[in-house]
Amino acid sequence: AAERLANKTILITGASAGIGQATALEYCAASNGKVKLVLLARRLEKLQELKNTIIKDYPETKVHIERLDVTETEKIRPFLENLPEDFKDIDILINNAGKALGSDKVGNINIEDIEGMIQTDVVALINFTQAILPLFKKKNSGDIVNLGSVAGREAYPTGSIYCGCKHFVRAFTQSLRKELVDTKIRVLEVAPGNVETEFSLVRYKGDADRAKKVYEGTVPLFADDIADLIVYTTSRKQNTVIAETLVFASNQA
Ligand code: NDP
C-alpha cells in the first residue's frame, strides 16, 4: 500500500474532526509520510492543530489547510484553481464532510435543518465531484470516495432527511462509477454504521448528554476504523474497485 500511495495528493473535506481527521493521519501512517494532503473545514484552528501533529510525526508530508464551508458552492472551483502549484494535481478526493441535524418526525423538521443536511451531504458532494472530474478525466486516473452510511441502506423513523441524503450518496456513487467504467477513475462508497465522533454532538446541537447516550451500551466504531478502510480501498491495485463497503460495529444490529 505504501508504494501505491507514495506521492499522491489527497483532498479531504471535513478534515477538522472525526473520520476526516483520522483519514488524514491514516494516509500519513500508511505511506510513511509520503503523501500530500489538502485539508479543509470551517474550523481552521482545528486544521492547524492537525497539521502540526502531522508535521511533527511526518516531517516530509506536505500539508495545505484551508478554511472552506463546503456549502458555499461558488467558492469550490476557485478554491481548487487557486491551490498552491504543489497541491493542484489531486489524485484522491474524499467527500467526507456531512451531518445529520436533529432527529424528528417529518412534520417537525425545520427548513434550516433540512437545507443544512441537503446542502452539506448532497449538494456539496456533487459540487466537489463535478469540480474534480475534468482533472481526473484529463489524466485518466483518480479516486473519488464518498462517505455514505448504513442510513443509506435502510431508513429509520425520525431520520428521513439524513437517510434520504445518504441513499442519494449511494445512488450517485453507483451511477458515476458506471458512467466512468471505461476510464481509470474509481468511484467508491464507504458506508459506516455507528461511529463515535462529533457527529452526534452536531446532530443534537451541542447537547452532550443526548449525544453520549447514542453510544451507551454499544461498542461503536471509531474514526480510525473508517479511516483504515478508506485508505485500504484507495490503495488497492488499479484493477480492483471496492465499490461499496458497509461497515458495522461488531455489536450493531
Ligand atoms: P464529525 O461531526 O465528527 O465531523 C464532520 C466534519 O465535517 C468536521 O470536520 C466538520 O468540520 C466538517 N464539516 C461539517 N460541515 C461542514 C461544512 N459546511 N463545510 C466544511 N466542513 C464541514 O462527523 P463524522 O466524522 O462522524 O462524519 C464524517 C462523515 O461520515 C459524514 O459524511 C457522516 O455523514 C458520515 N457518517 C458518520 C457516521 C457516524 O456514526 N459518525 C455513520 C455513517 C456515516 P467543521 O465543523 O470544522 O466545518
Provide a short characterization of the protein structure.
Helices cover 43% and strands 17% of the residues. By secondary structure, the chain is of the alpha/beta class. The site of NADPH dihydro-nicotinamide-adenine-dinucleotide phosphate has 30 residues, from helix 2 and helix 7.
Task: Describe this protein's structure.
- GO terms for molecular function: oxidoreductase activity, acting on the CH-OH group of donors, NAD or NADP as acceptor.
- Pfam families: adh_short.
- Belongs to the short-chain dehydrogenases/reductases (SDR) family.
- The structure is a single chain.
- With 253 residues, the chain is α/β, with parallel strands linked by helices.
- The protein has a single domain, classed as Rossmann fold.
- The chain is 43% helix and 17% strand.
- Helix 2 (18-31) packs across helix 9.
- The protein starts with a helix and ends in a 6-residue tail after the last strand.
- Bound molecules: NADPH dihydro-nicotinamide-adenine-dinucleotide phosphate.
- Residues 13-20, 41-43, 46, 69-71, 96-99, 120, 147, 149, 192, 194-195, 197-199, 202, 223 line the site of NADPH dihydro-nicotinamide-adenine-dinucleotide phosphate (NDP).
